[in-house]
Amino acid sequence: PKEDTQLQSMVSGVRIFVDDQFFAVMKAEIYGPDKDHLKTLSILEFKKDGESGEAYPKSVDVRNEVTRDKTRFQVMDAELKIGLPEKVFQVEGLEQSILDLRSRKVEGMEL
Questions:
Q1: DSSP sequence for 53-75
Q2: Contacts of 71-74 spanning 24+ positions with Cβ under 8 A
Q3: Which parts of 39-111 fold into alpha helices (H)?
Q4: What pLDDT does residue 67 have?
Q5: Which of the residues 25, 33, 43, 106 has the least number of beta carbons within 10 Å of its own beta carbon?
Q6: How many other CB atoms are found less than 10 A from the CB of residue 79?
Q7: Through-space distance between the first and last CA atoms of the chain, rounded to whole angstroms
Q8: How far apart are alpha carbons 56 and 73 in whole angstroms?
Q9: Which helix (H) or strand (E) holds 9?
Q10: Tens-digit pLDDT profile for residues 4-54
Q11: pLDDT tens digit sequence for 63-108
């Protein structure tokens, strides 16, 4: 957000890789103020919730690209049922924000 000057001083951009078949974020890269690649978050494995049918990350790697340190974490259980809008995973949706900063909602969901 343009209003968050502290975040802007630390992050110049984020690149997100999505799978348009499964509507899932697969990887995210975070870039520092000098546009240097700082961190990468990679989803290694998904698990499908038996009740809702939604997939959630089961295994995730977070790599510090400067030090090359890596942290892997496993998600043991999740209660999502968020249902992100399909436009998030479409090219046309890249120019639209789903975050309403004034009400702290994402497409009707409280944050």
A1: --EEEEEEEEEETTT--EEEEE-
A2: 72/44
A3: none
A4: 95
A5: 33
A6: 9
A7: 15
A8: 13
A9: helix 5-10
A10: 888 888 899 999 998 877 678 899 999 999 999 999 999 999 887 777 777
A11: 999 999 999 999 887 766 655 667 766 776 666 666 554 444 555 5
